[in-house]
Design goal:
With 264 residues, this protein is mostly helical.
Amino acid sequence: MRLLICLALMSAFWIGAGTRPGLAQDAGEFEPNRADIVRLLGEVPDYAPIREELIALGFEGENLELAVSHAELVYRDPVLAGHVADQVITAFLDPGNAQIAGGLIWPMVERGLGHLNARELRFYYRVERSLIGGLPVRDCGRAVRNRLPPARFAELITRAAARLNTSGLREYYRIQARAARFGIQREPVRLSQGRADDVEAEINAQIRASIERSGQPSSLLTALDDLNDATNRQACEIGKLFLETVVAMSGQDGRDALIYMSLP
């Protein structure tokens, strides 16, 4: 079973991008124009309380400036804004096929992660390990089992990101933006089902060996087999071990493990 521990995009603006008031009207009132929507998106940072909301989430100093710039990318980067515009037009013309609930940008990050090089992916998942380790145990365990509401998850991860060192946050944001552009412009990287099964088995074997060497309770091994029955503390520990194991793997197995973690 693939563990659901890939963390959501840090900025709540990225998760909900394109759904702000004023960008949607009844489709019958006018014919949506892509250029107009892109222009309107570019104006959103001029009046949206992005800075104020990030301050409320704990950002300050250089980290605040980085977070503001990162949030504004959705509205002002030509590739990202163009993608949001296309999705908004789809929502107007074919509401039944609109896919906004999960966010307009984060799915593209997921699609694009596999196109990053191994160094970038290892850095990305080291930061993810740091972020998940910074959550309260209850929330960490629920996040690993994908049981946190998206809005709450976004808030917790954003607050954790505010505490990262500035150089790490800058690189993490750069990697996210690069992955999002890849996700828009390219098909996701895939592993064959057989290879994915092999990689999952190898990761789990290494986690088991790590648990046994550490002398941790055997109940953690049982939890590894079925996260649904794990306590929050157990699930959190397994999530952290999973990330630590993947970034420590090398060679082709290491590369494939990083791809496995990045499958959309």
